[in-house]
């Protein structure tokens, strides 16, 4: 009897793994669907998704002048810090808010079209990554204007971005499963996102916490922002911070994969 159960467990594990692998390799599918979402959202718009870039630029300029004066930061250092922080945070917040809709949003598609469930999660992450790329234009323009050049350290943004996206996928997948089963998770997640914005060093710098730095060290989002922001600012991030970001990725995917193995086959019935 135990052998039968072990075989069944391995079968579900293999199916979940195959779903994820097939979903990732179907990049043309979720890539096309993500672009479709962006075009649909900004249909008949002159600037398209660059409206987000424009609004983000206004936000960076306004908050930069206000908080730069309040915190007595030098604007040529603070504005790039703020622009990157807000762009990366917008991506994280969108994944947290929309991740819960990964399966609910595409209920009809899931019930009528046979495709890996992970495709719907990757679709959401991809469309928000496109928006992140649009918002990154603000930093690029600002860097040219201020003569900011990160040097060789800037190349570390590539593994940093890979860590950010990899974590975004497991977060969206886990929230998608939770919200498919319990609809109350979505408003809870929205409230948590609002709280996280104020306790995460997006508009303020970590050194302002002084003796309470441990509060920042307990915030996992801080590490995921810094592995992207620090290299672009030409700053050297401690290896310990990279290590924590990697551990967050491993722990998050371990939990999510175990959850996906157990509940993947029930998702369609919960919708």
UniProtKB/TrEMBL annotation:
For the keyword Transmembrane, the answer is: yes
Task: State the source organism's domain of life.
Answer: Bacteria
Q: Does the keyword Ion transport apply?
A: no
Query: So where does this one cross the membrane?
Result: 50-71, 77-96, 124-146, 152-175, 187-204, 242-261
Alphabetical keyword list: Cell membrane, Membrane, Polysaccharide transport, Sugar transport, Transmembrane, Transmembrane helix, Transport
Localization per record: Cell membrane
Q: Which InterPro entries match?
A: ABC2_TM
**Domain ABC-2 type transporter transmembrane as annotated: residue spans:** 31-231
Family statement: Belongs to the ABC-2 integral membrane protein family.
What name goes with this protein? ABC-type polysaccharide/polyol phosphate export permease
Source organism = Azospirillum picis
Q: What is the lineage of its organism?
A: Bacteria, Pseudomonadati, Pseudomonadota, Alphaproteobacteria, Rhodospirillales
């Amino acid at each position: 009897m135990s052998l039968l159960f072990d075989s069944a467990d391995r079968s579900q594990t293999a199916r979940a793994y195959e779903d994820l692998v097939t979903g990732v390799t179907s990049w043309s599918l979720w890539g096309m669907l993500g672009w479709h979402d962006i075009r649909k959202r900004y249909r008949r718009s002159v600037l398209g998704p660059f409206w987000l870039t424009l609004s983000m630029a206004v936000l960076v300029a306004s908050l930069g002048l206000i908080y730069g004066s309040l915190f007595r930061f030098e604007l040529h250092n603070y504005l790039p810090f703020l622009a990157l922080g807000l762009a990366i945070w917008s991506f994280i917040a969108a994944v947290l808010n929309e991740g819960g809709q990964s399966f609910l949003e595409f209920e009809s598609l899931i019930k009528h079209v046979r495709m890996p469930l992970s495709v719907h999660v990757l679709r959401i992450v991809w469309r928000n990554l496109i928006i992140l790329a649009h918002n990154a234009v603000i930093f690029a323009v600002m860097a040219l204007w201020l003569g900011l050049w990160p040097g060789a350290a800037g190349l570390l943004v590539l593994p940093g971005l890979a860590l950010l996206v990899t974590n975004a996928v497991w977060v969206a997948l886990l929230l998608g499963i939770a919200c498919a089963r319990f609809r109350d998770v979505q408003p809870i997640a929205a409230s948590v996102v609002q709280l996280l914005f104020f306790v995460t060093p997006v508009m303020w710098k970590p050194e302002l916490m002084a003796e309470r730095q441990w509060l920042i060290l307990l915030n996992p989002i801080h590490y995921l922002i810094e592995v992207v922001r620090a290299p672009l600012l030409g700053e050297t991030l401690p290896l310990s911070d990279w290590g924590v970001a990697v551990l967050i990725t491993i722990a998050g995917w371990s939990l999510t994969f175990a959850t996906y193995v157990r509940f993947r086959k029930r998702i369609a019935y919960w919708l």
